Structures are given as C-alpha cells and as structure tokens.
Known about the structure:
By secondary structure, the chain is α/β, with parallel strands linked by helices. It has helices at residues 4-9, 32-43, 79-86, 99-112, 136-139, 141-150, 152-163, 168-180, 187-195, 226-233, 247-253, 260-281, and strands at residues 17-18, 48-50, 118-122, 201-205, 211-217, 222-224, 238-242, 287-291. The protein is globular.
Amino acid sequence: METFMDTRETETTLPYIELAGAEGAIEAQGDLERLDELTERLATGEFLMETDKTIPCKCKDERLCAHMIEGPNAAGGILSLLVADDLTTRRFAAKDGTTVGALQKMIAHLQEQNLPVGVHGDEHHVNLDDPLSGCGANDKLAAIYAMIARKIDTILEYVQIIRGDADRDGAYATATRAQARTRFSSGKEVFNTVKNTEDAQTEILEGEHTGSVAVINLRSGTTLDREAIEAEFGPEYRAFCDDFWSFPAAAAAISERDNETEIQQKTLAMDIYNIATSLVLCGPGMRVVIVR
Ligand SMILES: [Zn+2]
C-alpha cells in the first residue's frame, strides 16, 4: 500500500521528506538554492560532532546562545524523559499528580546515576511573572498531548520510517494516556524546577525561530554542531535536531533494570512525543532529514 509518505519521497531528489500533517508555524525558509545545499550537507552527517553524553539533556530547538548545553538533543531536553514515563509506566508519578512533582523525582534518579539533566528557556520569557519558559516543547505540552491523541496514526508512520518498525498497540496505549492527562504544570514551573537543581543545566536561547530543516539523527555518539552550521550559513539557516539514537539509553535509565518491555515502551513514547512536538511547532513545509 502506498502511503502519503511514499508519495512525498518521490516528489524530490533531495534527501528529505516534508513534515506532512504538521500544524505549526515554523517553516522552511530562505533562498531555495542555499536551503537545498544545507539540506544535502546535513544529510551526509557533515555537521555532526561527537558527544560523550548518552541521554538527551538539550532541546531540539535550533537557536543558539553564548553558553550552550552540550549533549544529545530531544524535545525539551529532560522533558522527553519525563513525558516518556508519564505516557507509560508512571514510575515517577508524584502524589499530587503534577508534572513538576514527577520531574523532581526523575532528576534525583538521573543524578544518582551521574546522568546529565538539562532544560532551556529563551530571552523573550525571562520575566518572573511570565508563565512561559520559551521552550515550545515545554510550554505547549497540552497541545502536544492533544496532537498525540489526535494524530497517532500519522505519528506512527514517521516512527515506522525512522525505526523500520512501530508497535501499533503500544502507540495507541500511549495516545490513550496522553488524552487522559488534563493538568499540566506551567512551562516556567518546569524550567525553574531544573534551574533550582544543583548540577542541572539550563540555557537561555536567543533570537527568533529560523529553523528550516529538522534532523533525525541515528548516529550513536553524535549530535548537531549548530555553531558549525552558523559559521557556514549564518543565522537564517538553522536546524532542529532529535538524537533518536539516544532514546533507548534514556528509556533504560528511567525503567526497571533490564525490563526490556518497559524500555521499549518508553523509547516508543519518546519517539512519539518528539514527532508530535514537531507537528505542533513546525509547518508542513519543514524539511525532515534522517541521518543514518
Ligand atoms: Zn525547547
């Protein structure tokens, strides 16, 4: 059966698929020739750099700042782990049911294992009274959960393309849990929880969203070198990055030891949250480049 993805892949000779099903505002932009060059060079892995960290601690956000967190990228940094637990076994669920309550327990658990913890804000939301953090994956968590519930079949197609297979029943169970959550801590509460933790990392990203390409990176031990892209292409041509290779290790870190079922469930939930975040924040013209 031909899916809408197959159709899209044949539309172009460039190594990307468009983000069909996306409903957000961030779109591929800029001079087409330059954008095509960035797309092709990202696909070769030219702009990947090594990282010795093993789990996501930095957001996929394409923007830069003076002191950037170094490590694997995923939606919201630690939010990807928090959501993966919330949509599966809820091992870290707080008594009061809040996402920040679960986050505190998870941070303690990760730091006991000497694993990195990171989250970000942006320069437009540093005011103390502002309930938003500046991280869309965090501030728009309710919309992202709604997206998971609404478009799980579309999301499953992306998981299938990226991973080669997708657990349909597991995905539907994830979507059901996403639909069930009605309360979300504010983005700023989530940000402050990490900011107020010793040895956790925060960064305040600068500028506006100018991402044109969303990189899905499957090469273990690497992440996107945004400064290298900036040096070649300037601030108009930036890229999001989801380091999908790091999700299984992150899932293992927040699962019962050697419980393969739980690890697979949480890896899938992380895949789903990261794709849903792109569908909420980006538009259908966003270019998705998978680096294998
Ligand atoms: Zn973010």
